[in-house]
Structure formats: C-alpha cells, structure tokens
Design brief:
The complex is a heterodimer of chains A (239) and B (157).
Chain A (H helix, E strand, L loop, with lengths): L1 H41 L9 H9 L3 E11 L2 E3 L12 E5 L8 E3 L6 H5 L2 E6 L2 E8 L6 H10 L2 E6 L5 E15 L5 E6 L5 E3 L2 H11 L7 E2 L3 E3 L5 E3 L4
Parallel strand pairs in A: 1-8, 8-11
Antiparallel strand pairs in A: 1-2, 1-5, 3-4, 3-6, 6-7, 7-12, 8-9, 8-10
Chain B lengths: L2 H15 L2 E8 L5 E4 L17 H8 L4 E3 L4 E18 L4 E18 L5 E9 L5 H10 L16
Classes of the chains: A alpha+beta (239), B alpha+beta (157).
Chain lengths: 239, 157
Amino acid sequence: MDRKNNLSQHPDEQAPNTAAMRWKWNEWAGLLVSLILCVQLSGCASVSTPTASELTNVNRGEKVIVLFRVTCMIEGQPYEPFSFSTIIDNVNFGLGSFETAGEPRLVMNRYLSEASRREGWTYLVLSPGIYYLAVRPPQRTDGFTYDRMLQSAPRWRIDVSKQAKLMYVGTLSLSGTADKLLFSGRIMSAIYSDDARIENESVRASRLLSEHFPGLGTQQTVLMKRWKEGDPIFIRSPE
Amino acid sequence: MSIHRVITLILLGMLLLSSGCVVLPIPTDEDKVLAGTPVSEQQLAFLTPNVTTRQEVIERLGNPSLIWEDARVFAYRWEMRQGILFWALSGYTTSAVGIHDIAKHYLLLIQFDEQDRVQRFARKVRPGSQSFADFLKEWQKNSGTEKTPASPRELIE
C-alpha cells in the first residue's frame, strides 16, 4: 500500500524536479553560448569605421586617414586577405612609429565596409609622420614565435603628409603559401617577402574614399616604400 | 615505521605532487653579439665635435640603425649577450626547460649641428626597462647638460 502510494505520488514529485533540471540545463546552455560568443567576438574582425573624435581630428589636420589595399595570390589563385571572422586568421600588420623607434607593434585591422573588407581594403588613422608597416600572414604558430615574426616581417615606409586629410599609400601585392583547413578552404601560412610589391590603384581608392568621406576632399597618393634589413629607420618627432 | 621514514615519504610524495618553476639568470662574458654591429672605442677616435662631418661618420661607421631627422641624431645599436636565463617548469605530469640569452643594449648616439658637423656623441647602455624611444628622448632632452667626452675612453657609462 505504501509502495502504491509512493508510486502514485511519484509523478507529482517528479514534475518540479524535471522543471528544475530543464531550468539548470537552460542556464548551462546559456552560459555556454555566452562563453562561445565572448571568445568569438573578442577576436572578431568586424567593420570599424573612424570614430567621431577621429574624424574631428582629421578635420583639424591632426590626423590622416591612410588607406591601402592587400591582394594575395596563392599558387596562382586569388586569396582573400581578410576573409575570416577572427583577427588572427587574417593577414595582419605591425606599425612602427616615433614612439616605438620604428619597431613594429601589432595594430588592429579596420575596414570601411564589409564589401571593401572582402576586396582587401583596410585603413589606419595616423598623425603626420614616418611609419613602418610590417605585414604578417595569419597566425599558424604559437604566440611567441608569431610575435617574433613581426620583427622579421617585410616592412614598408609610409610618409604621412601634414597637408593631407585622406591618403592612399598603395596596394600591397603579396604571394605566399597556404595550409588546407580541416573542413574546407585554406589559410595563408607564409608570405614570399621578396615577391611582395606595391601597385597603384589610386582611382579605385579615390572612389572608395569619396564614397565614405565626401566632405574631406580629395586624397593624396604617396606610395609606401620598401624597407629592407640594414637600411636606416627614419623617425620624426610628432608635431 | 620510524618518524624519519614517515617524513622522508611525505617529502618525496610532496616532491612528486608539487608543481612550480625555476628561473636562474647566469652571468656570462660579453663575448657574443646578438644583434647589430658593435662599435669599439677605437673606432670612435676620429670623432671630434665641430669638426667631423656627417658624411665622414657614414664613411667610417656605415649607415646608422636609426636616423632621428628633426633632432639630427644618428643611432647605432647593437646587443651583446651578458648572461643566459635558464628556466624550468614542472607540473604534475609534464615539464619543460629552456635557455634564453640576456641582452645588453648598446647605443652610440651622435648629434649633428645645422652644418652637419658632430655636435656631441655618447656611447650608452640602455636599461632593459626603458624603451628605445624614451631613451632617445631623454638623451635629447639632456643635450644642454651632458658633457661630450674629450676622448673615447670617457665614453662608456
């Protein structure tokens, strides 16, 4: 009888337990999704247009929007340099300045729009002066080795003019090797630094800049110049 | 079991279960160049303030590592090994060891006047804690107070 009573009571007791378990499961699932989102978003290569304060500085002549493009060829096939959603999987850059005595430090890739990102356009907002841009392939090794790669990465000198608000400094044409990804696609693993060259696409750059910054006038085109190991690094005090 | 045996067993057990790291800097002679080309004191004998020109400096010492344009400063940089850093990490089941060189950062700084003649020069050691840019700025700031050595023997600081 007791057993029967117990059995008859069981579904009533189980209902709150099941609800509690479902709630706990939902809580865990929510936490898991949040964690995954945090991890993904922290390295997310999203479009990042200039901020209002940066635009004010550009208008005052204190900063310059410096546009350039990267095109890559791997085994005769075009390769999108900024196609991945995570920063480390894209081609990325180090920037040497007066403050770093020319030594490149990692900078975040910024894009004017999703479409321009897919075409390989990226930009920097810089004060007038001399800079050194180092280019690295996506990270395919440990962090220490990857950081050291920045010091030996191919570099280009960028002269940011005092007179400009918008500048185009060239299209970096790169070739290299790629690794196959586990599921599909490929990822660049090395850049042939001797084959890297600068091309002039100032007409396309002008179209993009006037579309995004119609009030900032016309761009100035000063192509970046290759810096090679052993060449002196030039620096200039910020004004 | 004696108390000594018990203590020995406990210590051995702790040793097996513990994890930690060892970092041991070992000084060495400065006999290995890690980066750049060293400039010796003898090589600087030709430097005479208000006399030696920028062109003569390039001819004798080669291109500098860095040119600070508006301050008219040449910087020659080189790094010597002053020691090695031995490190070891151990966990419960794994361990790793490694050796790294400890660098001493040397600089020869030469400032020119508006006529491109040597104004002052100094052979310095940059502290590892100070960035190259900060070090340069500090040297430039002290341009009025610092004495230019009369002979290369006075150079090392």
